[in-house]
Structure formats: structure tokens, C-alpha cells
Design goal:
Length: 507
């Protein structure tokens, strides 16, 4: 049986204290009890009403099934946990689909802030002003809503930071408003820096929104320089069918010019193109793999050399200068083409070389000029340099006229055989034991380049070779009223033949 000692038990209002003792039921106090000394409760303490405790020291585990308040409305309130080792606050949900939360509020905004851990999705949420501002996913990803920004630098209370990272629903950006912006990779295993765009990468420098540097997803690089605010020019670095090229925009004229590097049988040619006034892009100059410099036209017209290259080997053809192209802006000559020796096999008949035949179409209208070089006989008593002019005016059956003059050497050592039909123009020497060469010396209209079947230069040799013994192509043809035209000598030789009207003129 327990003993109740009441020496220090009293009523604060000098009233009576009602104490009821029941066997094995403990003690029941129905009035207000004041204890000035310590209360030692070794068993459970069950308090159903309000409990006001000024100082509480709890040595063991405390379990609360309801709300736990630490309320000090007009001063700072805090929950302090002290330990000489690890300290923790555990919020444990009894449901895997629930959440653990910490709320923040004030008299004006209840529960305005919140920290929530969702157990169902295993992610952490941060709320301010009643809205979610930040989420950390189970994979460690940091997620923020549209229009939210990461701001660095400047005062923490300012509206914006010096460095802003954002996504506004349509676009994303990094904006720096103070100092330089550095993007640097100093990794020892790899120093690569990758910038990747689905369609293009644009570099904006001016504040007006223009793009001075643009890299497209095709690899094309566009550079648009700006001078005094003008951006009507552009350089483009591009590729077409494995051929790299640089294109130029001039005063809003797209593809005004190009520089191409074209592969050619293991070598390469550098090709310069520009646009004519009909908006057609044509080759104007070409630097060939053989070190030759050529003017050129696209289409059926072939390039001609300004300076001939080395061909396939170092020989007399290497580095020849087309001087006529320097003397006249609309004319040019090629390198010398070997027609052959001036004699055939024994008994050594004189050879006749076909050098040009007429052709039809408007492209054939004009004048072509050739130079003939004959190095003479073994004693060099003969030979010389001659110039032949051929006119054609839209008649495919014959040339209109031809003339020959001696530049230097023996005047009558080379002469022209003019035909009034498609046999065209031939040349013959008056002596033998030498060699004959031909090259272009000029033209007008469309006569720069003829097809190889119309021109000995383009054919890289005579169109036909004849002699009186028939040991080459045979005896020179007799059809077409062949006429021998010798250089002008102020006597019987006039130097010119009007083929169309069948008469001579002073050449």
C-alpha cells in the first residue's frame, strides 16, 4: 500500500484540497495544485488540458501526435537544439505517397513560404509568395519555372543581378551587364569548347540586333562587316560537292563573286568568278595546278592562258607569257603549238597544214588572228614570223576573207592557201628542213575560243596535213578554188584575198 505525505500540500486560496485515492487507480486531483518543489514522475504523465511550461528539459524521446507550437508573437521565437556531436531534425511521413513540409508565415501572410519534400516522386520543392520557385528532382536536376532567373552579382536586394541566366518560355539567355564575360575550358584531358545550335549559331555584337557573324547548320560561315552602320556586304565560307569556296555579297548583290578551290586529278585549281550584268556568274581568272594563269569563260568556251604552266614536264612551254593579253584588254594569244616539220619522208615533199575551217552560228561571227613561226632551212637563210587574219561573217560554208603579212624574216617563205568552201585556210612553206608552229595572236567579237575541230591551236596540232606525194593525208584538195596568198610586196602579191567576192586586196 502506497503512502501519501501532505506536509507541503496546501490550497493557494486557503480552501480545501480534494484528493481521492482509489485502490490501484492512482491519485485524482480535482482542484488547482501548486507545487513549489520538484515533481519526480517515474511513470507516464498524461495531461489532457493546456499545459504551460516555462522551462522543459527532456532527456528521452518526446512524441507529439498533434501540433507543436513555439509561440512568441512579439519577439523572436526559436527552436534551439544543442549537441556535442551530430544534430538532426527528422520529419517522417507514415505514407509513401505523402509529403514532409516546413511552413513559413507571418500575421499578414500565413504559410506564405514552404519547404516540401514529396515522397511519392522523391523531389524537393521551394515555395515563396505562395508559389513554387525551385524544384530539385530525384536525379539531382535543378528546375525553375518559366521567366525565373538565376542572378549573380550586384546587391542582393536589387531588381537584377550583374549576370542573369533565364528562360522566358520562348527563348533562353545569359546576360552580363558588368565587366567581361568569359567562357573557358582549361581541362587537361580535353580543351574543346562546343557551341551547338539546331539551325545556326549567331553572334550579335551591335545593339541594333544585326548579326556580324553567322554559322549555319550546314557549316557555312557568314561574316557581315559593318562600316558607318552599313551591312550591305557579306563574306561567306561554304562548300559545294566537296569544293570549298568563298562567296561575296556586294552592295546587296548576292553571289557577286566567288573564289573556289577545285580538285583536278590529284592537283587543285584556284578559280575566280564574278557576276556579269546579266546576273550570270562566270570564271574570269583561273590558277591551274600546272602553275598556269588563265582567263576563262564558262560553258562551251574554254580558258586561254595569260601565262602558260609547266604542262606535264619542264619544257619550252613552261612559263610562257601571253603578251597580247597584256597589250589588249579584249585579245590574247596562247602558247606555240607544233604543227610539224615542213617536209615529209623521202623524197621530202613540202607539207601543207590546215589551220582553220569555218563554222556556223552567230558565235562564229568575227575575226581571228594567228601567228606562224617557221624556223627556216638548215642554213637559216629562210624562215620568219608571220601573222594571218581570218574574217568570218555568219557563213558556215567558207570564210569571207584572209590576209597575211611578214613581221620579220623572209617575206615569201610562208604563204596562205585560201579555199572558197569548208576546206578553210591552209599554210605552206616555200622551203624545207625546218619546223612550223602556230599560236593565237588576237580576235574580236566571239573568236577567242574555237572548237578543236575548227582551230589547229585548239586541236593542239594541224587539222590536216597534206603533201604532193600523198604520204601524209594525201594530195591537198583541189575543190574550193584554192588560191595562194603571199605577203604584200608592192608587186604581184597583194597580201589579202576577198574569198567571198573572188578578188584580192592590199594586205
Amino acid at each position: 500500500m502506497s503512502t501519501l505525505k501532505t506536509h507541503n500540500l496546501q490550497s493557494p486560496d486557503a480552501g480545501s484540497v480534494n484528493i481521492a485515492l482509489a485502490p490501484n487507480a492512482g491519485m485524482v486531483v480535482t482542484g488547482v495544485s501548486t507545487f513549489s518543489g520538484a515533481i519526480d514522475a517515474n511513470g507516464d504523465l498524461d495531461v489532457d488540458g493546456h499545459t504551460n511550461l516555462d522551462n522543459v528539459s527532456i532527456a528521452g524521446v518526446t512524441t507529439s501526435t498533434g501540433n507543436l507550437y513555439a509561440d512568441n508573437l512579439y519577439a523572436q521565437s526559436s527552436l534551439t537544439i544543442n549537441s556535442n556531436s551530430n544534430v538532426s531534425v527528422n520529419l517522417t511521413s507514415t505514407s509513401t505517397s505523402g509529403s514532409s513540409r516546413i511552413f513559413f508565415g507571418d500575421p499578414d501572410s500565413a504559410l506564405v513560404g514552404r519547404l516540401t519534400y514529396s515522397h511519392n516522386g522523391d523531389y524537393m520543392q521551394f515555395f515563396t509568395a505562395y508559389g513554387e520557385r525551385l524544384r530539385i528532382t530525384s536525379a539531382g536536376h535543378l528546375k525553375m519555372p518559366d521567366a525565373a532567373e538565376i542572378q549573380l552579382g550586384n546587391d542582393t536586394q536589387s531588381a537584377t543581378g550583374d549576370l542573369r541566366l533565364f528562360h522566358n518560355g520562348s527563348n533562353s539567355g545569359i546576360i552580363n551587364s558588368q565587366g567581361a564575360l568569359y567562357v573557358q575550358n582549361t581541362a587537361t584531358n580535353s580543351s574543346d569548347l562546343h557551341l551547338q545550335g539546331k539551325n545556326s549559331i549567331q553572334f550579335h555584337v551591335p545593339s541594333d540586333g544585326t548579326v556580324p557573324l553567322h554559322i549555319l547548320n550546314t557549316g557555312e560561315v557568314r561574316i557581315k562587316p559593318r562600316t558607318n552602320g552599313s551591312d550591305r556586304t557579306q563574306f561567306s565560307f561554304n562548300n559545294s560537292a566537296h569544293t570549298p569556296f568563298i562567296s561575296f555579297k556586294s552592295n546587296n548583290l548576292n553571289d557577286a563573286a566567288e573564289i573556289r578551290v577545285e580538285e583536278d586529278g590529284g592537283g587543285s585549281n584556284i578559280v575566280f568568278k564574278n557576276k556579269n550584268r546579266n546576273s550570270a556568274l562566270h570564271t574570269c581568272v583561273q590558277l591551274d595546278w600546272d602553275h598556269g594563269i588563265y582567263t576563262a569563260e564558262d560553258g562551251n568556251l574554254k580558258s586561254h592562258p595569260i601565262i602558260s604552266g609547266m604542262y606535264t614536264s619542264h619544257d619550252a612551254q613552261e612559263g610562257q607569257l601571253n603578251y597580247h593579253s597584256l597589250m589588249s584588254p579584249d585579245a590574247g594569244i596562247g602558247g606555240w603549238v607544233f604543227l610539224g616539220t615542213d617536209y615529209a619522208a623521202a623524197p621530202y615533199p613540202v607539207r601543207t597544214f590546215k589551220i582553220a575551217v569555218p563554222e556556223g552560228g552567230n558565235s562564229a561571227i568575227g575575226t581571228r588572228v594567228y601567228q606562224i613561226w617557221h624556223n627556216g632551212d638548215a642554213n637559216y637563210d629562210y624562215g620568219g614570223l608571220y601573222e594571218i587574219r581570218i574574217n568570218q561573217w555568219n557563213n558556215s560554208s567558207r570564210f569571207e576573207s584572209v590576209s597575211i603579212r611578214c613581221i620579220n624574216g623572209k617575206r615569201d617563205d610562208v604563204y596562205v592557201v585560201a579555199y572558197n568552201n569548208t576546206n578553210g585556210i591552209m599554210i605552206r612553206t616555200s622551203t624545207i628542213w625546218g619546223s612550223v608552229y602556230i599560236r593565237k595572236a588576237g580576235w574580236d567579237e566571239n573568236q577567242l575560243k574555237r572548237g578543236s575541230s575548227y582551230c589547229a591551236v585548239e586541236n593542239n596540232g594541224a587539222l590536216a596535213i597534206y603533201n604532193a606525194q600523198g604520204t601524209d593525208d594525201g594530195t591537198p584538195p583541189t575543190s574550193g578554188s584554192p588560191y595562194n596568198v603571199y605577203c604584200f610586196d608592192a608587186g604581184s602579191h597583194t597580201g589579202g584575198r576577198d574569198i567571198e567576192n573572188n578578188n584580192n586586196f592590199a594586205g
